[in-house]
Design goal:
The protein is an alpha/beta fold and 375 residues long. The protein is 42% helix and 18% strand. It has 2 domains: 2-123, no CATH class; 127-373, Purple Acid Phosphatase, chain A, domain 2 (4-Layer Sandwich).
Length: 375
């Protein structure tokens, strides 16, 4: 169903962009309708093949095909947004008849420029976003604990060993006491490369390297993804809590989006926190839902990901309708929630406007909260 919806959406975007592009005087005078149709068929085939042959397949050819199709799709989206805004203002050319074609032409230029900027932004290394957060009940001897969080790496054919190595170097440079992965560590198409698993196993921190599952960990065979996390040496919190140190509990839930798609019932957040000892508590949840349940259970800090911050503006406006906690820091019933906009990317290597990020959170036992994200 997802692939069918994506194919239908890609077809509509392509048809709209080509139809409006054919009305530009520069195109209409030089390109015949038959040539426009031929171009449209060729581009549609690229999109179709990238979705059904490139996505999830192995090999350099499949990887290149997938990235070509995904980049084309994102570019069409940005151009369509720019052109649609002009069409709405000009009532699809009925207003400002004399200048509407010129304005529409500049909309194509603007959309193309946004696509180019998104490519540059998507290829940039993720920035480090720094937070200093008070955590109720945190023992004084844990004041100053540094937690580094990564989310949505989507390791696979596109983001592989070399990219991961650079990210792990970023993590080590922060000298963390604890590292957490907030889900979607792997893209979810087959077994991760042995070199990727080995690099993750080499990562260590005094208070442990922890993880929760994301929706991509449940792609295809539901048991495989979580097993790969454990094979990578990560301590996975499946709807449970663990005592990191006396006075500090870390809890985690399996992905809530996957639960909803599978029509699972029950309150996983409350169940994962049940029976924990007194002291400070943090919750890891890939999907930023049920924050009010975590707050009611006494959690002092909740960390999530999944949304990618919308990844490509203005797509975030649609994502926010399903995930109101889109990116950044929020306060829910007195409990702080930090939603990562993701360390990697899904689909095209493109981002607009904000780059990917790695969270670096200093935990305090006193009441001080500051934020100084790198840009």
């Amino acid at each position: 169903m997802f692939m069918l919806t994506l194919t239908a959406g890609a077809t509509l975007l392509l048809a709209y962009v080509l139809a409006r592009g054919a009305t530009l005087p520069l195109i209409a005078r030089r390109v015949s309708p038959a040539a426009v149709a031929a171009i449209g068929i060729a581009l549609w085939l690229i999109l179709f093949l990238s979705l059904y042959l490139g996505h999830g397949a192995s090999g350099d050819a499949a990887r290149i095909l997938e990235q070509l199709g995904m980049t084309l799709l994102a570019g069409l989206f940005l151009i369509a947004v720019a052109v649609l805004l002009v069409d709405l203002v000009t009532a699809f050319g009925l207003l400002f008849r004399r200048h509407a074609p010129t304005i529409r032409g500049w909309a194509f230029v603007a959309g193309g420029a946004l696509a180019l900027l998104a490519m540059v932004q998507g290829l940039r290394p993720p920035v480090v976003s720094r937070y200093e957060m008070s955590l109720a009940g945190l023992p004084a001897d844990l004041d100053g604990t540094v937690l580094v969080a990564l989310s949505d790496l989507h390791l696979g054919s596109t983001l592989g060993e070399r990219w991961l190595g650079s990210r792990l170097e970023q993590v080590r440079s922060l000298d963390p006491d604890m590292v957490v992965f907030l889900g979607d560590v792997f893209e979810g198409h087959g077994r991760p490369a042995d070199a990727v698993l080995q690099d993750l196993r080499a990562l260590s921190a005094p208070l442990g390297v922890w993880a929760v599952t994301g929706n991509h960990e449940f792609h295809h065979r539901r048991a495989a993804g979580p097993g790969f996390l454990e094979e990578a040496g990560l301590r996975v919190l499946h709807d449970r809590w663990a005592m990191v140190r006396p006075g500090l509990v870390l809890a985690g839930v399996d992905d809530l989006t996957s639960r909803r798609r599978g029509a699972s019932q029950g309150d996983a957040v409350t169940a994962a926190l049940a029976g924990r000892p007194p002291g400070a508590a943090m919750l890891l949840s890939h999907t930023p839902w049920d924050a009010h349940r975590a707050a009611a259970a006494g959690v002092g800090l909740m960390l999530s990901g999944h949304t990618h911050g919308g990844q490509i503006w203005p797509f975030g406006l649609l994502v926010r309708r399903v995930y109101p906690l889109l990116a950044g820091r929020y306060q829910v019933d007195g409990m702080p929630v930090i939603v990562s906009r993701g360390t990697g990317t899904w689909g095209p290597r493109m981002r607009l406007w904000a780059p990917g990020e790695i969270l670096c959170i200093t935990l305090r036992s006193r009441t001080t909260e500051t934020r100084d994200p790198a840009r």
